[in-house]
Design a protein that fits this description.
With 330 residues, this protein is an alpha/beta fold. It contains 14 helices and ten strands.
Length: 330
């Protein structure tokens, strides 16, 4: 007997109701220069316009809003390289509960500073020699706090899936017929949430996870049928997409609903960030630019209808961003 998915469309509809008073309905943009370059309509879901500059606020708020009074008093603990950290910290601030975030010591300075500014306590770790999950789990246990995973949680996945509902509604408003959607993928929560929302209402749409080279564990897992791990020495500029393997909860969803996985190089990501700045007039962080990189390089299968590209976040270190945007195209 097939196992019931971790979330269903009704969970995402309920999440949309819960987050509506707090979250931004982010824009679905269209750019004529991009359309002309690719020879078809391309719609850009810009999650950099969400609170804290990424989609992560959606899932964090949906999760934290479900806590009862006693749980809120004890607070929450999460781990993140930055975007989930800020999403949890912002949601905790709005809901008036304490938050502790376990973050890598080499996370972009802007993500560390923004998380602190939102009132969260930060505990740092070495991402290459320590386990963020073990540190966060021990903290939550010692404090009686609720652990808020960055992707393997049904309320978090459902919250991220609200972006998928918005994409369908906004595309209809724009008179666009969607053929494919490209979504960045780290642990797989955003991909799983959007795929669940979209496939329930428009099963003909193809969805693709996009990952940076070296962190293509979802693409390899989709090919092999089992959850694959990244190599210990893997490195990428896409700090937001460095999950060590697909989520135990997210991968079965993505395995059932995705059409495939695409992989981009760091140089393709840099070019996409430059394109977003110069042509789209959008600031996009490396991890947030992988889907744009894929479509600019023709990595997705040909599609006669509109393509949707999810730009998942805009939280990039200013110095690193200046170096990338000011560099020559590869």
């Amino acid at each position: 007997m097939d196992q019931k998915p971790a979330i269903m469309i009704h969970d995402i509809i309920d999440a949309a109701r819960i987050i509506a008073p707090a979250a931004v309905r982010t824009p679905l943009l269209e750019n004529h220069a991009l359309n002309d370059r690719l020879g078809r309509r391309v719609l850009i879901k810009f999650e950099g316009a969400q609170h804290t500059g990424s989609f992560k606020f959606r899932g964090a708020y949906n999760r934290l809003a479900r806590l009862d009074a006693q749980q809120r008093s004890a607070g929450v603990v999460a781990w993140s390289s930055g975007n989930h950290a800020q999403g949890v910290a912002a949601a905790a601030q709005l809901l008036a509960l304490p938050a502790t975030i376990v973050m890598p010591s080499d996370a972009p300075a802007i993500k560390l500073a923004n998380t602190r500014a939102l009132g969260a306590e930060i505990v740092t770790y070495d991402r290459h020699s320590e386990s963020r999950e073990e540190i966060a789990t021990a903290l939550a246990h010692s404090r009686g706090a609720t652990l808020v995973p960055s992707f393997d949680d049904p309320f978090v996945i459902a919250g991220q899936g609200t972006a998928g509902l918005e994409i369908l509604d906004q595309a209809a408003e724009a008179g666009a017929i969607i053929g494919q959607i490209l979504v960045c993928c780290g642990g797989g929560g955003l991909t799983a949430g959007i795929a669940t929302a979209v496939k329930a209402r428009a099963p003909e749409i193809a969805l693709y996870a996009v990952e940076p080279a070296g962190f293509d564990d979802t693409a390899r897992s989709l090919a092999s049928g089992v959850r694959e791990n990244i190599a210990p020495d893997a490195r990428s500029i896409c700090d937001a997409l460095m999950a060590p393997s697909p989520g135990a909860m997210t991968f079965p969803i993505n395995q059932a609903l995705l059409s495939g996985g695409l992989v981009v190089s760091d140089d393709q990501v840099r070019d996409a960030m430059r394109f977003a700045f110069s042509t789209l007039k959008l600031v996009v962080e490396p991890g947030g630019a992988v889907a744009l990189a894929a479509v600019l390089n023709g990595l997705a299968p040909p599609c006669g209808d509109a393509s949707v590209v999810v730009l998942s976040g805009s939280n990039v270190d200013p110095a690193a961003y200046a170096a990338i945007v000011g560099g020559a195209a590869a």
